[in-house]
Recover the amino acids of this structure.
């Protein structure tokens, strides 16, 4: 097996290839895609990436759609807040 990497982390497998900047971008994506996230249904930190855009909770076995590398993308958060704002204003008018 390879030696322990101090700075490059998960991107140590690429060695000196592809350039430092590209390896930093890839490191950010790989770290976020292999991380575990909090489940919105059961509350446990057990959601892992199953495949591109598909996330599964290991505890409650729920499957949810998300981003390719992160569970909730910034665009999804923007849409969620806009919908909540519309619901709030609609509830105030009624």
């Amino acid at each position: 097996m390879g030696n322990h990497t101090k700075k490059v982390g998960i991107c140590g497998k690429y060695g000196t290839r592809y350039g430092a900047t590209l390896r930093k971008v890839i490191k950010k994506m790989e770290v976020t895609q292999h991380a575990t996230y909090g489940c919105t249904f059961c509350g446990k930190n057990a959601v892992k990436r199953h495949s591109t855009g598909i996330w599964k909770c290991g505890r409650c076995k729920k499957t949810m759609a998300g981003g390719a590398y992160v569970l909730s993308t910034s665009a999804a958060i923007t849409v969620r807040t806009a919908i909540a704002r519309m619901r709030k204003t609609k509830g105030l008018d009624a």
Notes: The radius of gyration is 18 Å. The longest strand covers residues 47-51. The chain has two helices and three strands.
